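Q: Can I see a sequence and its folded structure?
A: Here is a first one.
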Amino acid sequence: MQDQHQHRHLHPAVRLDRVGKRYDRTGAYAVHDLELDIAPGEFFSLLGPSGCGKTTLLRMIGGFADPTEGRVLLDGEDVTGLPPNKRNVNTVFQSYALFDHLSLADNVAFGLKRRGVPRPEIRERVGGMLDLVQLGHLADRKPPTLSGGQRQRVALARALVNRPQVLLLDEPLAALDLTLRRRMQVELKQIQREIGITFVFVTHDQDEALTMSDRVAVMNRGRIEQCGTPEDVYERPATTFAASFMGTSNLVPGTYRSGEVLLDQGPALPVGTRAGVPDGRRVNLSIRPEKIWLSDFEPGMARAAGTVRETVYSGPTTTYLIELAPGVTVSVLEQNTVRSRREDRWSGGERVEIAWKPEHCLVLD
């Protein structure tokens, strides 16, 4: 057993070896020459806009679509071309596809019964799994009587009771309202930690990916733009696309010249020396709204003057849109702790100075 257990962790849970998927009709790539390793027990998210290839990738891991080129390996075993039922993988889709005429317990037991697992073991595993998703007390109920969040949990329990090596989740929280989604995000992460199964999660929601993942791959047009921890991808986006897709980022266009970015019709902003950016290169300066200060500046900060164009109050925070030059506006996010009263906040037309720490701005091609 010990040897087998050690063997299990010699390989990535999922390896995509130069996987590509072309559409028959057009020959265009949905997924392009992609290499990726996902570690055993990792909560891994594929994040990107619709049409970026994330669902196609998930379907290839699950066996619902065949790659046009490359290989899919699960725990070191080449499963390319094997159907879904021959892979140790389960999928939870957006539509939960539960059997309305069966009780929750029978829904969860369905796969185990088909595999001929002994009845006492089925009872024990189904009971344990329903308790894990906090639905043990509703085991005899039928799906139509449940809320969306409860049905989502049943679908999860049904997939997990089979003890798959990898659980694939295709936007499983998309149909839930915001409050419930937030709660389910936390619960899903807790369940994943508790059972230690590899989760591969597809979403177009940045907050969801940041909240839940050990690592995130930001996808665009069939390729991975950046892959790393949520903090890496958020704080140090590698490309303009990654910066704009992971939350809100101010992307200010200009020209790089020896430690400064010259705005087209505005000031030069100091950015420090940036290795690898030649003078005269067109760049985007990326600064997150929450990294910009409106007062109490510290020595060594980069500063710029601008005009407040709009103020958006949203409870805990206020967002100011500040024009630095014609056509160049940055958004600045401030916690409503310093200026909690309306008359303390800036209003449209006022001149202000903003500042940020040089390490918080990135120069992107």
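Q: Show me another, different protein.
A: A second, unrelated one:
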Amino acid sequence: MALSAAAAAKIAASVLTSEKLRKTVGWIIAAILSPLILLLVVVCSFMSGGADHNAAVLDLCYYGGMIAGSVPEAYRQHITDMQNSLAIVDSNVASVNAMAEDGSGLDSNRVKAVFYSLYFGEENPGTVGIEQFVDCFASYEERTHTWTDDNGTEHSETYTVAVPVSLETAYANIHSKMGVEITDAVRRNADEVYSRTHSGGDTFSGGYARGDGVSIELDVSAFADPTMKNNLDLVTYAENAWENGWGYVWGTYGSVLTDSLFASKLAQYPDGVGNYEDFIRQNWLGRRTTDCVGLIKGYGWLDTSTMSISYGINGMPDVGADGMYNNATVKGDMSTMPDTPGLAVWHSGHIGVYIGNGEVIEAMGTKYGVVKTQLSERSWTAWLQIPYINYISEAEATP
């Protein structure tokens, strides 16, 4: 289902009008027999072949870039349509996660990977019913909260909680609710896309430094203004996380990794956490942990009056790295980045905090934890002002 018959015919026609491209048919057929991230192979000849082509298109769809001039307009449109659709998927996942409890929301990268595998090549994938698609990954339960006020009067209210379902249940929901057949190829492709676009593994390169502390205490004594979320205090918070050797666990945001929290993340992310269970148990259990965007969200959710991190407070929504980037109104490519501590730096699926002096603190991956890196040595593609905090200068900070 990755490419409609009409779209495939139109692109194939463009290919076959070129003498040079006709000569590539042999290796295109060979590429079809290889494991693919994309189901679309007809246009391999416009970029590098096989897996390299598929990875290039995936990266374009996830975070943009320059498309080769030889690519037909129809194919350009497929890439643009998917870019726009993934942004809508992110937005709908954030809406579902706003109804989740204790940070146990949907894995945005997993949802996008399935959507990409199913709908790349469809004409106008944004019209397939993205809200309904995202809902296939959650069930909804009614809960009742009861409390007694100061006068002794009992009150109760009913509210709805979103609960993630297993991937197999999500696939079954997509089949029954949207009439889409989930083939083995779709499953394999979704797994390939997810593997490439979620962080937490051990594939990062470049130099990095780890802090040598082990404290789990949160310290705001050096905050410029504890009453207002701002870029300077985000830097201080990130530096504290680095100095105290915070670990990395997918889906966490600065809390101490207890046995119960670890168990919940194992169930929620059987790949991103489960694949590293032994390493996490040996290295991060009992310490504060976070994932890349969790480092930012943990600061946003820090209540400085109680020194606790509470899910979803202070106007900071539960969004992924890509959602943080998509929601930012002040951002640009790396060539335009100002030297402002507290900016975020981003590439598809990953985000870090720029602390000034050409350095970044990032929750790099499961086998690294929170580390300090050189801005120039990493593969960031864009910078952004985090849209849920204030940007102030040191002169504006409260004495």
